[in-house]
Structure formats: C-alpha cells, structure tokens
Amino acid sequence: MVIFVLIFCIISGVQSQKEALNQLLDQLVKEDTLVVTRMDRLGRNTKQLLEIIEELEKRGIHLMILNLGIDTRTPSGKFILTVMSAFSELDRTMIKEK
In this entry, which stretches build a coiled coil (predicted)? Predict the structure, then answer.
C-alpha cells in the first residue's frame, strides 16, 4: 500500500524554516521518500544539505530532487547524488585552504 502525504508550506525566517524542516524530518520513517522541488529548498548551505542527506540515508529514507531528476531509490540517482556531494565537499575543503 502506498500513501502519499503532501506537505506544502511557505515559511519565512531562518528559525521558522529550521523548525518546520526538523518537524518534517522527524515524521519520516524508513522507506519513506522525501520529495523536494529544488536542492536549495532542503538546505540553506552545502554543509546543512550534506548533513540532511546523510541523516536520511542512515534512516533508510529516500530523496527525490525534482528539478535535477535525482531519485535515490535508483542506483543512478544514488550515484549522481554521491558525485554532487563529493564535489560540494571538495569545494568546501578548497575554500578552507584559501
């Protein structure tokens, strides 16, 4: 049985956004799929985004990013997200070295 829950919210302010995201993440369970329209809607910066993705992976929660066509339920989606995460990590490391 598949159940779809659509949560649509417009939140202004960093603190309100963080609280709403945390509430959403707390509701997700193993095998759920979090769908976001754009990657920047999930995290405010690369570090936060990578932390959220890692948490989702540890908990067995899938991620779909619609504008990029990423779906971690597929091997190619996992690969693309891993490569993007690696580039983000490389970028952060290079910035720190400057």
Answer: 11-59
